[in-house]
Amino acid sequence: MTAVVVILGGYLVASLVLGWMARDRGEASAEDWFVASRTIGPVVLFFTLAATNFSAFFYVGFAGASYAKGFAFYGLLAMGTSLVGVSMLLLGLPTWRLGQEHGYLTPPEMVAGQTGSRVLGIVFALVLIVFTLPYLAIQPHAAGILLEQLTDGAIPRFAAAVGLTLVMLAYLWMGGMRSSAWTDLFQALVMIGLLAVGVVAVMRGMGGFASAGDRLFASNPELFVREGKVTVRQWVSFMLLWPMTVPMFPQMFQRFYIARSPRGLTTAAWLYPVVVALLFLLPVLFGVYGHLDFPDLQGKQADQIVAMLLGEHVAPWLAALVLTGAIAAFMSTADSQLLAMSSIITRDVLGGVVKAPELWVGRIAMVVLAAMGLAIAYEPPGSIFDIIKQAFTGLAVLLPTVVAVLYWPRVRAEACIVSICVGEALVFWSYLGGLPERLTMGMHPSTSVVAITAATLVAVTLALPTREAATPIR
Predict the structure, then answer these.
(1) What's the rounded Cα separation, in Å, for the pair 183 and 16?
(2) Is the pLDDT confidence value at 462 over 90?
(3) Per-chain mean pLDDT for the chain
(4) d(Cα 229, Cα 210) in Å, to the nearest integer?
(5) If you compute the radius of gyration of the chain from its CA atoms, what whole number of angstroms results?
């Protein structure tokens, strides 16, 4: 218990100090607080993009899903997420240019500005908030699981979640995006390094990779094959899911604006596949090899496999050190989600309605959103992986609108609104009972939902009379 307090306390203090040092020392402005005055260089940009995407889901959810699906899940993760680099080039670069030209600070501002429709901006904003909130909620939930397990219940799950959230709010309050980006750099290095240490330590406790692998193959050969775990259609649809959805998360989208130059985005796009292919193997190893010590976990129990293996095979102080990486994963994603959603509420939902300074509206919105996330985290409605799948599908609906706004001058705001409504109706149908087989064709629902959404957007646009391109409203 003492080791946990000392190690975690040191990490949290370091995050607070770094957040304080990164703040703007001049007069604070909304542009600086939300997008760091667009001054983030290539190295920090890459690490903040990576850390923002590699959430507590990476540490906990990936391991839990790999426990159920075996090594086949690695292909779904590594290959699909590697394609996010392509999205950074195709979506990130034109978004950065439009942000420079028109001063956009949020994703809805861009789609509303380029189509001349505030209504579309509000619809876009509401979808982002509705489907990001559950994703935000799993961050403190997952971190709480790990700390509760590590301390044998001495630190209750929800109390840990509240404490970590308060620290995160403190450094965000001081520096906004600057603090978020620089603490992301620190948190990414902590997360990657300590997870690798944890895998090596657990494998040594199991007798080494080779010995443990032989025993695992003898007892669970099905974990080494794709058949019976993941179909070809599921494989393809999950590979499409990541590049379609990850850029639609507001915390990722907003980071396209913060780059100092296009070189930062191109650097991140090329590094991303290399890092992902190596990094995603680590939680998968935890999940698959966990069958040796804990063979009968069911449902949400598998989300605890990382902490369980560390508790079984390594000293408490080392387990505490490794799990600090999971805390870093939680904070690096949650702080970005809070900042992105608070900027959307401030500028796209309440803009022009509330007369208070944007900086203070954003800070208050951030605190309210954090409280809402904790309320959901108190008793989440399913496993971490199940929650993420719903969030991914709901946000993937926005992709056709973003692509059309960036690349199709004829696109109409009305068509975008109709397509989003149709897509979210399909998501709701999927949530209630699942889309019929004739629509999904055995693939992840997001694939057919995005296809129908895109077809709707094109059909409605072509059906509407042609008119001059909209004049940007910002």
Answers:
(1) 9
(2) yes
(3) 84
(4) 24
(5) 22
Task: Spell out the long-range contacts of 262-266 with Cβ–Cβ below 8 A and sequence spacing 24 or more.
Answer: 262/93, 262/96, 262/97, 263/42, 264/40, 264/41, 264/42, 264/45, 264/46, 265/45, 265/88, 265/89, 265/92, 265/93, 265/96, 266/89, 266/93
Q: How far apart are CA 341 and CA 362, in angstroms?
A: 9
- pLDDT (tens digit, 9 = 90+) per residue, 358-370? 888 999 999 999 9
CA distance 92 to 87: 7
Length of the chain: 474
Q: How far apart are alpha carbons 50 and 192 in whole angstroms?
A: 10
CA distances from 159 to 156, 219, 423 (A): 5, 39, 37
- Amino acid at residue number 267: T
Give residue-wise pLDDT tens across range 216-269.
888 888 888 766 666 777 778 777 878 888 899 999 999 999 999 999 899 988
Judge contact between 322 and 201, C-beta under 8 A: yes
Give the per-residue pLDDT at 174.
87
Closest of 159, 131, 23, 58 to residue 384, by C-alpha: 58
Q: SS3 for 444?
A: coil
Which residue bears the tokens 């809805």? 108
DSSP label of 290: G
390, amino acid identity:
Q
Full 3-state SS string of 9-63? HHHHHHHHHHHHHHCCCCCCCHHHHHHHHHCECHHHHHHHHHHHHCCHHHHHHHH
Sign of the CA dihedral with 180 first, then 182, 185, and 186 last: negative
Helices (H) and strands (E) in the chain, counts: 24, 0
